[in-house]
Design goal:
mainly alpha, two-stranded antiparallel sheet, 7 helices, 160 residues, single chain
């Protein structure tokens, strides 16, 4: 399907963001991306699913190209709809980061989604929790270097 992202790791090729993140979580030492507490872990997964399944697929390049001239309005509609669902959840779960005070998979999913929102001219200011979390995360070096606008294959007009 020529899916992005795709990662070659440990002799296999994985695609789909959540599969890649979960594989890394399960096979690499270091800071955990899922909390040990089952309730917080479920909250992280809920946020990830809302972003990865409920918002992001509707902005995939393949989908957007099929929409034609109304692609910006289409993307704005579905991002805003998703953010309207996400904002109250994050108000309940957030500390410094999406779920409490430890970086999780939810934070990894949030940053590129906010990037897409900004790319499609969504007013992120309407969503103060989303905006605050994104600003906090963008101050962290790992998020700076992995930001979509900083990737070597990012088109020139979308580079940071």
């Amino acid at each position: 399907m020529q899916q992005v992202p795709a990662v070659e790791i440990d002799g296999i090729t994985l695609s789909q963001s959540l599969a890649v993140i979960q594989y890394i979580e399960e096979t690499r030492p270091g800071p955990r991306l899922l909390p040990t507490d089952p309730k917080r872990r479920a909250q992280v997964r809920m946020i990830c699913d809302l972003i990865a399944s409920g918002i992001q697929p509707l902005q995939n390049l393949y989908v957007i190209q099929k929409i034609g001239a109304e692609k910006v309005q289409w993307a704005q509609h579905f991002i805003e709809r998703g953010f309207q669902a996400l904002e109250p959840i994050l108000k309940e779960t957030a500390g410094t980061y999406c779920v409490g005070d430890e970086i999780s998979m939810a934070d990894i999913c949030l940053v590129p989604q906010v990037y897409n929102a900004e790319r499609f001219k969504v007013d992120v200011g309407q969503y103060p929790t989303i905006r605050r979390l994104n600003q906090t995360l963008q101050e962290i070096e790992a998020f700076k270097v992995s930001h979509p606008s900083s990737q070597p294959d990012t088109p020139a007009d979308l580079r940071a």
